[in-house]
Each structure stands twice: as structure tokens, then as C-alpha cells.
Amino acid sequence: MQFKKILNSISFYRIALFFFFLVFFLESLFFALYIREAIFPDEGHHLRLSQLYSETYTNLKNSEESYHLGDIEHIPYLYHWIGGRILNVKKVIFPFVEDLFVLRVFSVILGVVNLYIAYQIVKRVTKEKLQHVLLIAMLSSTPMFSFISAGVSYDPLVFLFSFLSILLTLKLLERNSISLLLSLVITMLAGILTKKTFLPLVVVIIFFLIIKTFQERKEYLNIIKRSLKDKRELRHIIFLLLVTFFFLFLSLNLYLRNIIKYKNLIPSCTQVMQEEDCMKDPEFLRDLALQENAPPRAERLKPYWYIPHWVYLMINTTYAICGHKAVKLSYSQFIRFFMIIILGLIMFVRKYDVKNPKYNFLVILSLFYTFTLMFYVNYQSYLWRGVIGVALQGRYIFPVIVPIYICVIEGLLLFKNKYMRVTIFGVILFVFLYGNIPFFVRNLTADWFFENAGDIRTVLNVKDSLYIINHNIKRFLP
């Protein structure tokens, strides 16, 4: 039977998708259960903030007990507020389970949801099932994506709002809808209440929304008129409007207040606290030490020389592990992933159809976000701290990783020859699968895991796993 017929069969298609979803879930759950504290990026910080929010329903205020966390009063807080509510429920239903474990499982659930939304996105862009399967295979086998989806972090929630915003925008490009439009606005507002770096996505999406709404203004007026006559639809729109205004108020209360009072979206620690109080924050001390020991500004890299370093570090911290412990790619591993990405993008540019509004959106969104991250965030951080690798990690590009992967896949699978397409599909699949779980097995040693877990080879040993699972479950109990 031909490969295309096999792939188009519902059973094979569903089995392939189910397999990658299952592997991703089990892999992330494995990390959530076994990786010890102080490994995932900033996990202790996010855990402590969530615990503080579990004690209040309003915004936190800077205090003596929070100075070691830096400024917690003027920053996006939605993830930590949700984390606080989860811990409140946990105390009632599972009071004996550790906070760390509960919030890690929450991240795993978000990771699976993010993978599903990514699947919905690629279905909106192309009907070709080969591309659907390959996208899910690539995303679920991106090591840092599965790793960060297991730790206590706001990143999985940021990815959720990013992917959902992309999906809703694609739906709006297909059909006009007041409900979809309001849902998208709510999602974007929730995103900027979670992390400041969500703002570049908002800029591009709003740009597309303004153009789309202006072009279809007559139809939107007709939709409003029809909604006024339909009581059920009217109630739904009124509800969405109320939620929109609520999130808009929260967003303005955070960012507009900061701009008016501190002339910045997020003020520095010394703008809102005494320097001696800021010195209690380890991150503040790190940045202070880096600035004091940094080379003269005139000796630092120009933007065009900074780009190769940025690309290398971005790939190395996407397809390896970067937290409070790190594993780097070998040269050959780096080359494999680099060639797949760069060749896919080059081939996509050759095929790119500027008349396709969906690809226009994905391309502009990816480019704008990437260049904003590269020059406005990472390069400015380098100029400030004097060190290239600080605050430069692959997880920061994940809000647009789905559009990037879609473009790469579209470029690599442009060949009409089915044997060429199947060969390329197989090569990409092998590189990503081999670069995921086998990569972890080769590199994660005993000091990555909870006490008595041994290294990952011991953990994966079926005979020893029963003892280790029992030990780790007991660890989360009193």
C-alpha cells in the first residue's frame, strides 16, 4: 500500500498523533516526578510567589518577607495568582500533597493542552496530514519544550495564551465573528498579565485585527445588528464584553500605572525599593556583579556580530536543556538541528505565496517577535550585563515556535515526488526523536534527580522503577 494512502487512513493518522501525545505526556510527567528542586528555571521563585498568592486574593505588596524575590508588586501576576488558587484547592482536597508536585502536574496538563492547540493551528493552515503529524512530532520531541512543561513556571501558561491567540486569529481570518474577536482580546490581555514579553505578539495581532476589521466593517455591522435580535447571542456577547473590560482594567492598572509613575512598563527594583532591600534578591546581586565586571561598552559586539551568537545559543538551549543545570549539544547535534531549521526556512521563502493571508500572519508574527526578542530584549540585556548568554534561552522563542515549525515543514516538504517527501519526513522524524529521550538518557546523571533515584538509566530500568516510584510518591506525602 502506498505511503500516502496509509497516512490518509484515519486509523494510522490517529494512532500516530496519539503516540506523540502519549510520549509527550509521559515524558513531562516523568520530569515532574523525578527532577529535583532547583533544576527547572526559576522554579523556586515561581513556587514561593504562588504560595504567597495562596494567602490573598488581591495583588501582593513588597514586604520584608518578599524582598528576596525582588519586586513582586509591579510585575505581571496572573500565573502566580492562578497558582495560589490551585494551592487553595489542594489544601482542601489533597492537604497531604506537596505544593511543588501539584504545580508541576498543572504545568504538565498545560503542556498537553498546548500541544493540542498546536495541532489545531496546523490544521487551520494546511489540510495535509503529513504536516500535521510532523509538527506534533517535532514539537513534542523538542527537549526544552517537554522539560519546561514539567516545572513550576509561568512559561507553559504563556505558551497557552500565545498558541490560543494564534489559533483565534487564524479563525478570524476565515470568518468574521464578534465572539471570536472578543475571545482573542481576552486571551491577549491574559497573556500580558502573565508575562511582559507577550506584548510583541499583541502588537502584530492588533495590526492584523485593525486591517481585517476595517476591510470587513460592513459585515461586522451586520453581525452586530443580527446579534441584537438574537437574545442568546446577545447575552453571550455581553458576557464576553464584561470579561474583556475586567481584564482590560487589570492590564491598565498594572502597565499604565507603571508608565505614569515609573516611566517604564516594568520598573527596576531600585525604582520601587531601597537598594539594600533589592540586595536581598540573588538575581539582583548577580546582575550587579556582572555589570561591575563587564568589559567597556565600546568593546562589546555590534548587532551584526551578535546575531550568530544569538542563533547558536537559541538552538543550543532549545534542543538541549537550560535551567539551573544545563546540558549542551555537541557540534554534530547542533549542526543537525541548525540545518533542518535553516534549510526549511530557505525553501519556504522560495515557495512563499504572499497572497496567502494565513502565511502572511504567521511570517510577520514570527519575524516581528524574533527580532524584538533578539535586539530589544536579548541584545539590550547583553549591553547592560556585558555577558551574551545571560537571560538568553530557547524557551523565550516558544511563543512563536509553532509558526516557525509550520514554515520549516512547508519548506522541507515542498517536493512533489512522494519518495523524496517520505525520505525527508523520515530524516526529520529520526533527528527529533533521537535528539529527545535518547539525549536525556545519555546526559542526565544522578544529581538531576531526587535522592535515591539514581541516574536516568536506573530510573528507566523497569525492575528498579517500582521502588523509585514508591519512594517518590512517599516523598510528596507527610
From TrEMBL:
The keyword Acetylation does not apply. Keywords: Membrane, Transferase, Transmembrane, Transmembrane helix. It comes from the Bacteria. GO terms for molecular function: transferase activity. InterPro entries: RgtA/B/C-like. Residues 99-221 form the Glycosyltransferase RgtA/B/C/D-like domain. The keyword Transmembrane applies. The chain crosses the membrane at residues 12-35, 101-121, 133-151, 157-173, 180-211, 237-256, 304-321, 333-352, 359-376, 396-415, 422-441. This is Glycosyltransferase family 39 protein. It comes from Candidatus Dojkabacteria bacterium. The lineage of its organism: Bacteria, Candidatus Dojkabacteria.
